[in-house]
Amino acid sequence: DMSSRCPFSVHRMAIIGCQLGKSIGEWFGPFTASQAIKALVEDFPGAQLSAYITKDGVVYKNDVYKTAKNNKQNKDFQSILILVAIRLGINNLNPIYYDALRAYFRFPQSVGIAGGKPSSSYYFIGTQADGLFYLDPHHSRPAIELKSNDQLTEEELLTYHCDVPRKISISQLDPSMLLGFYCKTKDDFEDFCSRVEKISQPVFTIAQEAPDYSDDDCGVFSEDDDEFDKSNDKSDDDKSDDDSDADNNFTEQVIELDNVID
């Protein structure tokens, strides 16, 4: 829906993707997805939310505080969404990160993980033993008119829930993923940092500030969709010139807007 009441709709996500160089229907990698989310947040000040994308797997506290500061509303710390686009292996998820990923779901700040397995992308919301519970964005539902909860019929309410819980083994998880954490206050953010620092084999780390490199070439790597390339998972018939930045295992639902957007 392109309505102003739907600032984070899949249609707006697709339009932002075009501004980021992704055609309608083209796969989004974790980093592109995080950039799109950040752009949508910045375009909707009414949410009173800010968004921060990690740099090379590190959350820099001074950058988070700068991002969360809202001068217009005289707020020292506005609620912030921290997005961690990461790759934890080459073709398979490295088992060394299993415990850390399970631990992140227990963080009160966690909003889940967007990831999946070959040819499927899911939204993971919880864990039990070696299983990950997920929602499947490809399972379409009838569109429901926006209205208050007390105005929804029982049939309409059911469309917001799954009939059965869906779960896969953590060993099946694709190594390319996007982690999300929501910190409502400064104390909430400090608690988040404290929890991250207690993880023995962390997926990402916390630092006070970014190193001041005198030479731009000193960076370890650039966090681009090229870092998440999984073109080898495409069949020979499907491979094309966009293989260098296609992340075929971390895919968003193919969005067809031909009949929606001129």
TrEMBL record:
Peptidase C54 catalytic domain: residues covered: 4-195
Region (Disordered): 211-262
Acidic residues: compositionally biased ranges: 212-228
Primary localization: nucleus
Presence of the UniProt keyword Electron transport in the record: no
EC number(s) reported in the record: 3.4.22.-
GO biological process, one term: protein processing
This protein's name: Cysteine protease
Function: Required for selective autophagic degradation of the nucleus (nucleophagy) as well as for mitophagy which contributes to regulate mitochondrial quantity and quality by eliminating the mitochondria to a basal level to fulfill cellular energy requirements and preventing excess ROS production.
UniProt family annotation: Belongs to the peptidase C54 family.
InterPro entries: Papain-like_cys_pep_sf, Peptidase_C54, Peptidase_C54_cat
Record's keyword annotation contains Hydrolase: yes
